[in-house]
Amino acid sequence: MTIQDMVRVLNARVLLGEDKLDTPVYTACCSDLMSDVLAFVDEKTVLITGLTNPHVVRTSEMLDLKCLVFVRGKVPSEDILESAEEQGLVVITTKATAFTACGLLYQEGLRGVPVPLEWDSDDK
Amino acid sequence: MDALIRQTYPVASADYTSAGQASGDIKRRLKKLGIGGDVLRRVSVASYEVELNLVIHSLGGELTLSVYPEYVELVSRDVGPGIPDLSLAMREGWSTASDEARSLGFGAGMGLPNMKRNASDFEIKSEVGVGTEITMKFNLA
Question: What is the ipTM of this complex?
Answer without folding.
Answer: 0.88
